[in-house]
Fold:
Amino acid sequence: MTDTITAGRDRYFDTLRAVAIVRVVLFHAFPIATLELVFPSMGVMFALGGSLMVKSLDRSASRAVRNRLRRLLPALWVMALILVPVMLQRGWQDRPSWPHLLLWVLPVADPPASEFGYPAAGVLWYLVTYLWLVLLSPLLLRLYRRWNLPTVLLPLVGLLLLIAYPETFGTTAGWVVQNVLAFGSCWILGFAHREGDLARLRPAAVLGLAAACVGGALGWAYLHPSENGMDLTGIPVAYAVFSIGFVLALLRWAPRMRWLARSRPLDGFVSMVNNRAVTIYLWHNVAITLAVWLFDPLKLWRIPTQGLESAVDFTIALAALAVAVLALGWVEDLAARRPARLSPFVRRHRLQQTPAPAHAPAPAAA
Structure:
């Protein structure tokens, strides 16, 4: 079954989101630090989410929040229905009390998981952070429209204070607050994009500031190495500033995307990833872990890979992820109030270039 993608989608945003999700999958399959430096996916995705939130908030703040939660949570609930019983059946030492399991319903903090379930639960901090930024958006947008630059900087100031006083919120809440503050500036820069404020800045000034953010963050990480060497992601403030640099550069311009429609395989791939973004994100680490587990039982070591075991694992992971997308991706259709379909691909009959970025109509973020 195929659909027609409605005209007016911001294909630049769709492409950025697809690149971000592919980079996340690649990093978890091949944990090479360089991938984090090539493209800070989390910061970019939060910036896209912030930009897409503005127009909905202008229509109705309460409806905007409800719609984002409706798009976000059903896929998590399906994961909970599958994973929580399996974790209980396999034996869950130190299982939390039942009220704590409600975090799988409304993830205001990381949902609890056993060691067996950690590959699935370990990526849920993104949903938790996204949820809080959605809930805070009506307030943040009012603050931004009154004091734009101070509001952009506010999360960074809060993050500095949290690093200075790490015991303020405790371990669980502190982790949530740290993530919200670390990516809050990227979210608010999304507001600046949608309001047209970034477009009004001189290109040279934006590029200079972006380069200063990226270079300064890398320099700080280089001068303050961890036990394992340079680790940008282990320095929350530096990584936040690094992400801001990329977001400034990526959102300042809105390149024409007609070339994407002419490349039908790539265009279809971008659409597919956007249609199943939540499912891919939730299940990709499970698929990667499953591939590692299956390597020995399937006796894949018999294949003369000549040192390409990682490629074999990744191929299995992609196959497992494809099964998850086909089996569970229809939940995203229902959440978006579209007819449910097994195929993640859609038929594009026409594509219109999105208007200027400050006023471009766009769908809800995945």
Observations:
- The first helix runs from residue 11 to 29.
- The radius of gyration is 21 Å.
- The chain has a mean pLDDT of 88.
